[in-house]
Design a protein that fits this description.
The protein is mainly alpha-helical and about 90 residues long. Helix content is about 70%, strand content about 10%.
Amino acid sequence: MSHDDHLLETLRSIEDLLKILVRIQLKPVLEQELSDDTKKKLYLATGKDGIVAISKKLKCSTGWISGVWKRWEQFGLIVKDGKSYRPVL
């Protein structure tokens, strides 16, 4: 195994461990924040569709979505990715 391969394997292991730790920390927040069907669907669509498409699909306002996304960003559930958001996990 080359040095680069070993380094890559080590980085993947670190990434896996970090994901586990993040899941453990975010689980209670996710359970609380995704307590209703609309928010669950919004979370699943975040990062895949734009705000207008999500708004039409879920039949809710873009303002409401934007507010929820800002709240979730503060909780660390999603991160800003350019002009849109994506889930951390």
